[in-house]
Amino acid sequence: MKKLFTLLSALSxxxxxxxxxxxxxxxxxxxxxxxxxxxxxxxASGGTVVTMPGTGRNIGTEVYYPATVAGNNAxxxxxxxxxxxxxxxxxxxxxxxxxxxNRLASLGYIVLMPRTESGIFPTPVHLDFGKDEALLATLGMxxxxxxxxxxxxVFNGKVLQKSAIGGHSMGAGASFLAAANNxxxxxxxxxxxxxxxxxxxxxxxxSLVTVPTLMISGENDSVADTTVQNSHYAGIxxxxxxxxxxxxxxxxxxxxxxxxxxxxxxxxxxNTTCNNxxxxxxxxxxxxxxxxxxxxxxxxxxxxxxxxxNPSVDRVGRKIQGSIACVTTSxxxxxxxxxGSLFPNPVVDILNVHCTSKTTQLQVTNIIGxxxxxxxxxxxxxxxxxxxxxxxxxxxxxxxxxxxxKKISKKFIKQ
Length: 415
Prior knowledge:
By secondary structure, this protein is an alpha/beta fold. 24% of the residues lie in helices and 29% in strands. The protein is built from nine helices and 21 strands. The strands form three sheets. Strands 2, 3, 4, 5, 6, 7, 8, 9, 10, 11, 12 and 13 form a twelve-stranded mixed sheet that branches. Strands 1, 16, 17, 20 and 21 form a five-stranded mixed sheet that branches. It has a four-stranded antiparallel sheet with strand order 14-15-19-18, with no helix packed on it. The protein is globular. The model is unreliable at 1-18 and 328-338 (pLDDT under 50).
């Protein structure tokens, strides 16, 4: 269970940050691509479906976003939020991933889930699906200024002009098509990428992907196995690319576990319990990766690199090229002089942190990237503070410290 903490300190020079979570709003939007035909149209239902003007291919899309209140067509929350496009697997529906898109929307992302190419007959056209994903990233960012129809005005001024494209299985393979030569894309992620049926296919298209990329796959995936994942990974030309293989994960244990179609391809555990467990494991990588890339969060980059670099029983393999960790000219100074030690580490109750800076921002995250309040800084002294860790559950945590332009992440263990 997530522990919540409050900051108690006699001095105001130390501040703490935490992850704001939002109610999740929802809007069904039929986007248009004038250059193509076909697609899928979400049927009108009680006036809740928005159809964009124009002609051409219909890209029916379920949009989930941070809102002021949960519900259909709700107002967007205060702030600006980046775009995340995620494509579904073969013969799977968008709502098989409600655990993923609801989580991301609650963390401050506008998530677009295309419903195109979701049937078995006719055979899905992977190239069209990839084009849908690519266009949705652009159209999603365009919601920042589009005012017709009136329903979409809620997005005006609320869209951060950064985007990620991802997917699962077929949608993951199509994400390589969407990212190839895509100069407006910020980053790419995918789960268990399957090879697409077009020419050039997703493996060949990987050689045209230049943005930071995170691939996540499963040890026990018999649909898109490690050989397939390695072929995609090897082709990516981005100087920053990462691949993590989750222990025990099958192809269909990505998502909420309700897709009977997927389970025909490879039976998973047969219930949602294991999906919930695996969800925490793969989102532990995705969340800090997206936060670093789309919000330029340096601490999240450090958290991601620490997680993928250090040994873990939740992972049977990983590949790393490049880094998204913070790079500062004064990193050694902050490490050796301002934050020279955390002790004792492992800690049972009181963690002593050496820190002499006058303006320091503190952040504690757990192993899955959730940011936590600090319950009690017992005392703040001239050379640091004492953190009461007695309320934390046993496990691994990260203390992230920002001081001016200097940033560092330190791991500590609660016994």
